[in-house]
Structures are given as C-alpha cells and as structure tokens.
C-alpha cells in the first residue's frame, strides 16, 4: 500500500468511525433516558433532563478536547472509556436500583461522563484528519456523517435495538462497539 493509499484509508476509516461513534453516543443517551423514565418515573421530566445534561456535557467535552495534546491517542482513550462507562451503564444502573432503590446520582454521573467523552470525539477526529493531511478536509463532512449516525440511531433504537436486544444487551453491545472502534483505529 502506498503512503497516499494509507492516508486515504485512514481518512475513510475516521469518517466511518465518526458514524459509528455517533450511533453509539445517541444510543447511550436513549438508554439513559429510557432507564431514568422506567426507574425514576415522569418520562417527560426524565427525557428532558437527560437530553439537557447530555448535550451540555457534550459541550463541555468539546471544550475540554483542546487540552488533549495528542488527538489520536485522545480519541482512542475516549473510545475505551466510552466502551466501559456507556457499555456498563444499564447493568450498573439496574444493579444500583435493585441494591439502593434510587439511581439518580449514578445515572447523572454516568450520563455526564458519557456526554463529556462523546463531546470530545468530533473535535478530536477533526484534528486527526487535519494532522493526517486528509485531502480536501472539510469539517462539514465530519458533521454530516455525525448527524446521519444520530439519525440511524434514533430510528434503530425503538424499531430494532430495544425489541431485539433490550436495554441491558444494547448497553453492552454498544460498549463493545466503542471498544471495537478503538481497536480498529489503532490497527488502521
């Protein structure tokens, strides 16, 4: 493989990874909103709080990404941490509810962690693409792929993911997806 082909493969992979992490991020948000609605009641309040906290946490993560010195390493670490925190969100929250009867503090702590890590992804991917010298790099291409990933997740969650996997397995499956993105990013 020539250096130009390698750079092209890495750029295509990073855009594909953007789609995958967008799907996983929105799935984590929907899992948190569904769990909070089930376990804490008042679905309108819970969905509103989850969406607001998640989005503001993403904003914080985006801002914090400027302090990540090595963008590629930061992206890989964000995927590993998302795979662990997001992947174990449903099991931890169900266990906490069974043990303590309340999940508010761990729910919002995990939601903030997932939001911050998810918010770091796009700025880090954009920096990696720029550092790679991706031909005709355009930030709007990254955002387009990100938004289509969110659309795919919002359609798949109620129609496929929850009916086929349920909350517990979905949480674990998308945690595995983030870990796979980290692994493939290192390999490619």
What does this protein look like?
The chain is an all-alpha fold. 88% of the residues lie in helices and 0% in strands. The protein contains 6 helices and no strands. Helix 1 runs antiparallel to helix 2, helix 3 runs antiparallel to helix 5 and helix 3 packs across helix 6. The protein is elongated and about 55 Å long. The two termini are 12 Å apart.
Q: How widely separated are the two ends? A: 12 Å
Q: Which blocks of ≥5 consecutive residues have pLDDT under 50?
A: none
Radius of gyration: 17 Å
Share of helix among residues? over 70%
Shape: elongated
How many strands, which pairing sense, and closed or not: the largest β-sheet? none
Q: Strand pairing plus helix content: what structural class?
A: mainly alpha
H and E order:
HHHHHH
Number of helices: 6
DSSP strand content: under 5%
Mean pLDDT: 92
Let me know the number of strands.
0
Question: What is the structure about, briefly put?
Answer:
With 188 residues, the chain is mostly helical. The protein is 88% helix and 0% strand.
What does the secondary structure layout of this molecule look like, with pairings?
Layout: H1 3-40, H2 43-64, H3 71-85, H4 89-100, H5 104-132, H6 139-187
Task: Throw out a few tags for this protein.
188 residues, mainly alpha, 6 helices
């Amino acid at each position: 493989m020539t250096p130009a082909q390698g750079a092209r493969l890495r750029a295509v992979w990073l855009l594909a990874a953007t789609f995958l992490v967008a799907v996983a991020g929105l799935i984590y948000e929907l899992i948190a909103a569904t769990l909070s609605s089930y376990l804490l009641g008042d679905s309108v309040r819970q969905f509103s709080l989850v969406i607001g906290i998640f989005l503001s946490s993403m904003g914080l993560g985006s801002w914090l990404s400027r302090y990540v010195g090595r963008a590629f390493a930061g992206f890989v670490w964000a995927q590993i941490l998302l795979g662990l925190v997001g992947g174990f969100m449903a099991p931890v929250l169900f266990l906490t509810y069974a043990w303590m009867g309340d999940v508010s503090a761990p729910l919002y702590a995990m939601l903030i962690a997932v939001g911050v890590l998810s918010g770091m992804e796009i700025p880090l991917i954009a920096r990696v693409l720029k550092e790679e010298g991706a031909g005709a790099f355009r930030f709007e291409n990254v955002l387009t792929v990100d938004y289509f990933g969110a659309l795919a997740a919002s359609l798949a969650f109620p129609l496929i993911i929850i009916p086929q996997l349920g909350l517990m397995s979905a949480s674990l499956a998308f945690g595995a997806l983030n870990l796979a993105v980290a692994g493939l990013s290192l390999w490619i």
